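Hello forum,

I keep getting stuck at the same step: I have a sequence, I want structure tokens, and every attempt I make locally crashes halfway through. Rather than fight my setup again tonight, could one of you with a working pipeline run this one for me? It's a single chain of 92 residues.
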Amino acid sequence: MLDERNQEIAVMYISGMAQDISTVAQTVGRELTLPSTIFKPRLFIDGDKWCALYGENIQDGVAGFGGSPVLAMMDFDVKWTTKLPEKEAASL
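Reply #2:
Ran it on my machine without issues. Output:
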């Protein structure tokens, strides 16, 4: 049986571990909802950068670029939520 002080230490330790587990669970939850996780773009080297591409080609698909695979995936996630530029109205 633990004395009162050791019980307090055990409670603090368990509480800390529970907080750590909660933080990890939140991080994993966020990672599972990223576009790069859901859509699994192809990853390849394009010139001097890594490219994460979803689609047939860079012009018609969504592409992220970076100096490393993780940076390309992070850029892909940003590009996934970026709107296309508005086209100017044709002059009459």
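The helical segments are 4-32, 35-39, 69-80. If your local run keeps crashing, start a new thread with the error log.
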